[in-house]
Specification:
single chain; Serine Threonine Protein Phosphatase 5, Tetratricopeptide repeat; 14 helices
């Protein structure tokens, strides 16, 4: 509870009187945005990279909750920016998924691997495209994210953006040279996906950019 409420003096007293660390104090403080508590806990000996049972570290939890100041503090205190949860999700992945642009930029500045994928092949760029976060799509590509890397289901960022109807993301991906002619195993292109889901404006944007639909007769 002291970590939850940011009560630094209480935590210092508990530590001074021999109360053992668990995995939760630093994670709780990080998730609730208590930067000074986070710094105090680490100064008192808490392990900045110690993870919960599911693999979530204090940095991951802070990133998931959009706690930019805590994220920056943890980075300053040598948190591993690429340490992933058990399913392969990194702090950058979850910050991107949840739309925390300032946290994404902080992690990128700290050297987070923009191409590190989850176990299912989803990258930070893929999830940014799926969620419609156009500024993050641009930011990730500009620092080296692979614009055409497909997830395990065969969908590229352009495919998933077209499927979900995210026009702004599609425009950014076209501008930043996404492959307009990539086809899934079944031959479908981004044009086909946009049409299948009724996103006529996106289909038009893709066709105007030079993308074409799958020619079933040529298969």
């Amino acid at each position: 509870m002291a970590a939850f409420h940011g009560q630094i003096e209480v935590m210092q007293w508990l530590r001074a009187n021999g109360c053992p660390w668990t995995k939760t104090e630093l994670c709780v403080a990080a998730g609730n945005g208590h930067e000074m508590m986070v710094r105090a806990l680490i100064e008192l000996g808490a392990n900045v990279n110690r993870s919960m049972v599911d693999g979530e570290t204090p940095l991951y939890i802070a990133a998931a909750n959009g706690r930019e100041e805590v994220v920056r503090a943890l980075i300053d205190l040598n948190a591993d920016v690429n340490k992933a949860r058990n399913d392969g999700a990194t702090p950058l992945f979850v910050a991107t998924k949840n739309g925390h642009e300032a946290v994404v930029r902080a992690l990128i500045e700290a050297g987070a691997d923009v191409n590190k994928a989850k176990d299912d092949g989803d990258t930070p760029l893929y999830i940014a495209a799926q969620k419609g976060h156009a500024p993050m799509v641009r930011a990730l590509i500009e620092v080296g994210a692979d614009v055409n890397r497909a997830a395990d289901d065969g969908l590229t960022p352009l495919f998933i953006a077209a499927k979900k109807g995210h026009e702004a993301v599609v425009r950014v991906l076209i501008e930043l040279k996404a492959d307009l002619h990539y086809g899934r195993v079944d031959g479908f292109t981004a044009v086909d996906i946009a049409a299948q889901y009724g996103h006529w404006k996106i289909e038009e944007i893709l066709r105007n950019a030079g993308a074409v639909a799958w020619d079933a007769g040529a298969a």
